[in-house]
Amino acid sequence: MVKHQPLQVYERQLCLSCLTGIYGCRWKRYQRSHDDTTKWEFLWSLILVFTFSLLLVWFYFWWEAHNDFSEFNWFLYNRSGEWSDGTVPILATTAAGFTYIAFLMILALCHIAVGQQLNLHWLHKIGVSAALLTTAIGFISVNQIWGEEWAVIPISLQATGPFLHLGALVAVTALAWLVAGQVARTEKIRFQVVVLLLYLSVLLGLYMAPLSITSPCIMDHANLTPRPDVIGHQGAPMLAPENTILSFQRALQMNVSGLEADVAISFDGVPFLMRDRTLRRTTDVGKVFPARQLDDASSFNWTDLHSLNAGQWFLKDDPFWTVQSMAQREVMLVGNQSVCSLEQLLRLASLHNHTVVFSLRRPPHGHPCYHSWINDTLEVIRLSGIPQHLVMWTPDWDRGQVRQVAPGLQQTSVEKLPPQVLHQQGISSLLLRYSQASPYDIQEFSRSNVSVTLYTVNEPWLFSVLWCSGVSSVSSEAPNILRKVPYPIWLMSPDEYCLIWVAADLISFTVVVGIFVFQKWRLSGMHSYNPEQIMLSAAVRRSSRDVNIMKEKLIFSEVSNGVGSAEDLYMENGFDYYNNEGISH
């Protein structure tokens, strides 16, 4: 055992050198210090903690916003006019920045654990400042161009809250080792009291946090409503080009209960499916009609529209990263798609007895159908032969006239109104963004016999939360993914959650008390002081003969304690062992 002691000490010193070297470029032993961290460095430690917390929120936001990445890219396209996946650089830089700051946080905690003075190197300070600045700019930018997406955080916490609470409880419980060590080492009563109060306040807050955690998935299993119907938003746009016949056929293969589309009206009065104002993104209009590629899609007649290719863009842009997994036959089918008319969609839905919901865009001023667009659409519905009860009618214009012409249509509002107002207007269903209806709203509408369809729901966690909330149907761009969710991801009764909460708190409290007792016992007899080391720490920034003498005394003191050979320690600390002179660098 004694024989291997110098090697073990050397390994510990090597680890300590790496720790202080990477964090503060203090590779030599005499550069380290056990003194209290200076106020300036303490300020930088607080900045590091704040940056880590901000990046953690930023990282969590983008992790949960994955449900709406397609929407975000569409916003960017409308602003720039060019299609690209803007989430890729954001996710890459976020992952890199979070990893870097988290690594610095771990190094800082290790410094505290071994009692080393915190001294962040200036290069790291620049890195922390850059991470803080870019993250702040990111928050501001998202708030300006995509502010409604912040609602995903409180909604996602309904799915992740109980698990994040347990994770935070484990982390804070583990921090008891560092806190207990700091309290045991210091002799300043005020410092001990402040540290203990802060730590215990955080710990107590976590113990009581479940009182503020609400989730529709914490419910009795018997109260779970039937699985919500899934409506294919633009068909199945992850598997085929949006708003094409192939996309709707793929959605039907995923067992959807309905189909949703975006409808515009051509110059000659034919309703057709198109999400964008122009044809640039989803057709080859730039190749066929290069002079008209920026024109409104409604300015084209149906013959010209039907001649355009509506599939090649999907193979080129691969908006959902699914093209590489397609078979060659599927690629050929995708590449030969054309613009789809509303009548084609209605006939397909009628054939399979499925619901159809569509948003209808009014043509611009000067368009031949500017005043007749409602009647033109109703005529197409009549000619298609689809039963009226299968069509969810969303336009608010001339609802009275629409009810007279087609009384069987499901009158649907895209505006959140009180149930009493909806009944007065003859509206029986709502089509809202998922962030517009809380679990309470959904239950209130359900009690008033108003069905609620929420869009766009692509992630299993969001589908599970809305399922537990009691929603009747959701509109999704990913019916192929939701098809694999036959039951909510997690569901537990209030009694089960209460048991987990109490058990976790008791275990955490026991571990924390044990850590404090052990640390107090372990460090109670380890307070020893080396006068030369104290003087050296105070004079670490000076270069003089006295400082060198103190270094020599410290080295010989460590040699006598079995740390290593005199030659090794001299060379490590920058001395020529044979000439007893400082080595110039």
TrEMBL record:
Any single GO BP term: lipid metabolic process
InterPro entries per the UniProt record, alphabetical: GP_PDE_dom (IPR030395), PLC-like_Pdiesterase_TIM-brl (IPR017946)
Major place of residence: membrane
Pfam families listed in its UniProt record: GDPD (PF03009)
PROSITE patterns: GP_PDE, PROKAR_LIPOPROTEIN
Any one GO CC term of the record: plasma membrane
Residue intervals passing through the bilayer: 42-63, 90-114, 126-147, 159-179, 191-209, 499-518
Residue ranges of every copy of the GP-PDE domain listed in the record: 228-486
Subcellular location: Membrane
Keywords, alphabetical: Glycoprotein, Hydrolase, Membrane, Transmembrane, Transmembrane helix
GO molecular function: glycerophosphodiester phosphodiesterase activity
Membrane topology: Multi-pass membrane protein
PANTHER family: GLYCEROPHOSPHODIESTER PHOSPHODIESTERASE DOMAIN-CONTAINING PROTEIN 5, GLYCEROPHOSPHORYL DIESTER PHOSPHODIESTERASE
Family: Belongs to the glycerophosphoryl diester phosphodiesterase family.
Protein's recorded name: Glycerophosphodiester phosphodiesterase domain-containing protein 5 isoform X2
Annotated organism of origin: Salmo salar (Atlantic salmon)
